[in-house]
Amino acid sequence: MNDKEKLQLAIGKRVKLLREEINMPQQDLAAKCNIEKSNLSRLEAGGTNPTLYTLKKIADNLGVSLEELVIKL
């Protein structure tokens, strides 16, 4: 596994952890972020490289800062 894949996996795990901490279904977060549920599912599984804008939307809808989303990787 290369560095890019490791980072994608870490980001996905972090998004999933924060989402589950507030008991938000994947479908709800996807709708709030205006992205497809399948895309969010892939992101959480580490299968996609999200843009900074997408990460910001996710962080906002999880009630955390972008820094809190990515700094604790």
UniProtKB/TrEMBL annotation:
Coiled-coil residue spans: none
Tagged with keyword Repeat: no
Pfam families attached to this UniProt entry: HTH_3 (PF01381)
Keyword Oxidoreductase annotated: no
Domain of life: Bacteria
Segments forming domain HTH cro/C1-type: 15-69
Keywords: DNA-binding
PANTHER family reported in the protein's UniProt record: HTH-TYPE TRANSCRIPTIONAL REGULATOR, METHYLPHOSPHONATE SYNTHASE
Name under which the protein is recorded: Helix-turn-helix transcriptional regulator
Organism of derivation: Winogradskyella marina
